[in-house]
Amino acid sequence: MYFKNTEDKMELQERENDDQSNEPFLPSLFLHTTFDFLLVAIKQEPGTEKSDKQKEFLDKLKKKKITITSIHHEDKIFLGLRAPNEIFEDYQYLIKVSDACNWCKDENKITQANRIRIVHFILNNTRIRTNENLEKLKMEGVFETMFCLHEKKEQKNLQKTWARWSALFTPQPFDEIKSYFGEKVALYYLWLNWYTILLIPAAALGAVIFLYGLAFFNTSPLIKEVCDSNVTMCPSCDRVCEPRQLSETCTYAKVSHLFDNEGTVAFAMFMAIWATAFLEFWKRHRARYVSKWKVYDWCEEEEELIMEIVNDVECKPKEFKHSYFQSTLVLILFTAMLMVIIGITHALVVFRVMTASWFSRSESDFLEEKANMLAMLLGAVLHYVTIQIMTRVNRWVSLKLCDLEKLNSLAAKERSFTVKMFTFQFFTLFSSLFYVAFFLGRINGHPTNYVRLLGFRLEECHPSGCLTDLFIQMAVIMLLKQTLNNIFEILVPWAMNFLRKKTARRLKRQCGKCYRKFCREKQGRVEACDICKRRDWLRNYHLGNTDAFSLFNEFLEMVIQFSFTTTFVAAFPLAPLLALMNNIIEIRLDAIKMVRYERRLIPRKTNDIGIWTEVLEAVGVFAVIINGLVIGISSDFIPRLVYHYHYGPCAKGIISTHCMQGYINDTLSVAFMKTNIKDEYMLKTNDYANVTQCSYRDYRNQDYSLTSQFWFVLAIRFAFIILFEHVVVVCKFIAAWFVPEKPVRVKNSRLHDKMERLKSELNDRKLGRPISTEV
Question: What is the pTM of this model?
């Protein structure tokens, strides 16, 4: 081995001699050597405003007895922060005497995750004379960033057991995740794991419904009636669209039958009950773990008060405030934002109408024939692009509205932000689907009196129904959103990791290797040298940035997916299957990203997924309403049912091969032109100069007035919607009552814990011992 000098060789020999010793020399008193937090600042010229603010903020930290270790690297200063044990002893004592204490011994010891969380709160609530906190100082460039360090031993353990693709189907180590990332991250993965498991029966049943439609793909009498028809349909647009034979839409009718059949009604009812069962069983599943982690009675507001006192003994409580003026202003702005989102949906409708017209005028036969289909696909892609843009806009607006509310705690602000952001995102994603499901083909008018937008006719439904349009819209958005999001989630951190490795190799060449045995002491009980500190700090510095939105974004993505899976499932029974396949990958993708490619998330303590539980319950109720409307209005289930039992051949006692024979013709009305089709639709060709009538989808008389059958079917539609929703809601209430939120084992465990705590405190009082505050 080549050595640059004799000192390197002597240092290596000393290291090898130490390694042969069974009991290496260590100091008798070990200090906490892991840094709680790191601040990074750009070197400033002395005497400048930024330099003075840096010094003032660091002096504030020193007054709180936080030790600061600085290491210079190029133009940056890395500041390692380590809080004294007194801070954590005070925190532990206040937790012990608080109302939310859940008595235990070992679990009350201050872990590194707890240290990070407390120090993070202190840093964010330390202000200089200008009343600026660390967040504002970062915005001004006084400090560049702040982050906590990964612990190498625990990080490697998580990489080995959890954050790797080969562990795709292995159980997740929730206790280890909780110890390293905190309860909030652990509960996210616990919820996501539970959601993924319960998607299995939903995905299986959805696949069965799809296969049921596929089994009757070629034998359905409705499909045969369309494919063998000689009916001439009215042009779908003016000037360039020619009348078509109904038989030319045979393929579309077959695709429609895959998703618009009798099985979708049963599947929609199943998914509504499934959503309730999922939430109720999740509450039980959560209770087992939070009881095990001793945070069952934990209170976020009380925790925040305790850390306020730990940070500043002379602090004053942030009192609750309410202003009707502020509430009214927030409500007006919130409603205005929803109107903007709905307006964007109208713009998408205009785009689809204009695109369909442009394609219809194309010289290409393919574009002319598939004009409506291509316009719908392009509209779905544009909708996806709009979603990506509006996500950033929605976040900014939500934060500003929360600032207007002036809430008294971080927990209250987080709840308010979650509700606003989810509502905006829900409207952004689902507004276009609402148009396709409930308005497409129903507001376009009729021959001789079509509704036009900017001179273009509105879109029409296919004679086989509009459910296929809804299916295509959902499939495009869901596939694009899940696929592209996963690609970006893994590519961006990987690229940053690649750049980090290049930087680390350059650093290695600059500073060489450290041969101090203490720097490799696995228990972390010995202070590392500056070379090893700098290497470790830079390794964490070059990882992907994390913030308060990192975990929120993951939750939002999954709850939006849950909304897709349950809300319009009657039109897309394969949605649970796509969600299941995505989640299996998503779990490991998020784990790899958090452990390997991103800075360590700030551990947060909690005993629930927070306001997301109420959001999921609201989505479950909303899903019942939407699925009832989809089946009752968008689907042809009700018209087919009415025809079968009231207007069809079987209802009239006519011997027929099938009770649905003649259904397609029954749903079509005939338009009689004043002159001919050519003049009425301003066609360029003379082929239809002698044709004076065509058919269109509607229940109308010759004078275009609505028939009695239309009103009868409409009444049955509304009756079905009311009946469906009431039956499913009753089933949801029964399921919620039948499954108790707290398992008996958890109740008994908490009962024994409380009794043991009371006995212990009574014994301590009799013996004159104070309450233990062991760290």
Answer: 0.84
